[in-house]
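Following the same procedure, the fold was encoded as tokens, giving this record:
***
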Amino acid sequence: MARRTKEDALATRSQLLDAAERLFHDQGVSRTALNDIAVAAGTTRGAIYWHFKDKADLFNAMMERVTLPLENAIGRVGADPEDDPIQQIRDALQHALRVVTHDVQVRTVFEIATHKVEYVGELQAVRDRHLAVRTECLARMAEGLRLAFARAGRPPPITCEMAAHGLHAMVDGLIQNWLLLPGEFDLQAAGAAVFDIYLAGMGLGPAVAAPVPAEEPVSI
């Protein structure tokens, strides 16, 4: 009986998170009341408070259930010191872009987190989590770049921390723009191209070939 009760509790929690995900995406986080989520999940408001402290706690649980792609992928950078740090960052970013492109649930949660939440009132805790994740991501990138410059035997043209901020902003901006109109451009191809161009500009990574000019029409 105890095992069944635990299973029921987990099922209820999952139903609440599913309902929150749908409503947050459809009408925004600030316009979604906890009671709306309870009704959509077929439970009571009391069930929400059994599982979650408040809306921010529920929101963060939704995020943790489907970890943001960049958060999950970038955690691999530096895991194996024998690996090429630039390739690790490239693989992490490509993994993030691939998941955003092909996993509907991840894409939905990412869209909520970037376009449909306001960091006000009780949702300040959501902002705190977002900042903590971003800080860890930037630290991983900066460390990977630092290792890459050390292996290349040259100093970075700017601090690795600043370079990490630029790289993060570039990739984050690509994802946010792609989410506004998925399919407008190839997110994975664009990410790979701008990543290599960015690194080449700092003296890392493969050289970037100049584009081939279009042929001029021939006059007869």
The radius of gyration is 22 Å. The chain has a mean pLDDT of 86.
